[in-house]
Amino acid sequence: MVRISNFSMELVRADDKTQKFPEHIGPISDPVHYFEVEPDVEYFIKIRADTSFNSYVILHVDGEDLGYYPILSAATGQDCSSQYNGIFEISGGIQTMKALRFQRTKVRGSVANGKSGVINSPAMWTGQIKATFSEAIPFGLKARNMEFKSQWNPRGKVGATIGVDSLAQKKGVMSSEGNSVVLERTIMKGEVAQYYMKGRTLCTISAKYCCTPGLIANGILPRYTGPRDDYTHVSIDEDEVRVKRRKKEQVPRDCIDLTEE
User: Fold this and answer.
1) Residue 87 and residue 89: Cα distance in Å, rounded?
2) Strand 192-210 with 127-143, pairing
């Protein structure tokens, strides 16, 4: 959980929302929070506020606004207001919240064309999740929308394309739309709700995410320096990078060596 004052954000698995993704903190010189994630796993962004007033939240995934603005209610007694967020849609009055998904990136350019001998080997660059918390200012009752679709672009704006020199700017997963649904309800015709506008900004929580090789490339996890036998050799871009992994049953999943030749 990444927490600032009375606000927090974390990533949880869609199939079991009690399971959080492991978190790491960068060095003192750059104390950024990182979530260690896995390809092809669906997730929700859990946000939480422990305040005496309603909070207006703007969520960005890979630099793109999710297109809707959750309202966290004022805390009551021992209970804090929290929400699970993903892709919000309303179709024919049916309201759903779909999960996001960590999808493998695809290689383009010289790598995809086989210039360095590898086809469809993912680049390792780092994604970003950001939540901006503000005061929620009510401006009146209004009929609920019966149709809504987020314009969020799953390609994102964060990260780098194939061809950059630094492995720390590359990743193997990006966020896309998943299939799991955490919220589904029918909006009654003529149903009204209190609407809010954004007030004073209170804080912004930002964290990065990537797979284990990306954490190694970013200097968050140590490189594996064990024996160099029984590994697979992968070339990424025109810089030769050997990704060496022993058989699954022999070595923990974070034992990956990214060695620039």
Assistant:
1) 7
2) antiparallel
Query: How many C-beta neighbours within 10 Å does residue 26 have?
Result: 15
Q: What are the residues whose beta carbons fall under 8 Å from the beta carbon of 201, sequence distance 6 or more?
A: 132, 133, 134
DSSP notation for the chain: -EEETTEEEEEEESS-TTPBPPEEE--TTS--EEEE--TTEEEEEEEEE--SS-EEEEEEETTEE-S---EEPPPBTTBPEEEEESEEEEETTEEEEEEEEEEE----TTTTTTTTS-SSPPP---EEEEEEEEEEEEEEEEEPPS-EE----TT-S-S--TT-S-GGG--SEEEEEEEEEEEEEEPPTT-EEEEEEEEEEEEEEEEEEE-HHHHHHTTSSPPP-S---S-----BTTB-EEEE---TTTS-TT--EEEE-
d(Cα 148, Cα 129) in Å, to the nearest integer? 23
At 61-119, the pLDDT tens digits run: 988 899 999 999 987 655 667 889 999 999 999 999 999 999 877 654 444 444 443 33
Type of residue at 228: R
* φ, ψ of residue 170 in degrees (nearest 5): -120, 160
Q: Which residues pair with 96 in a beta bridge?
A: 89, 184
Residue 223 has pLDDT above 80, yes or no: no
Mean pLDDT of 138-163: 74
d(CA 48, CA 128): 18
- Give CA–CA dist 55/50, Å, rounded: 10
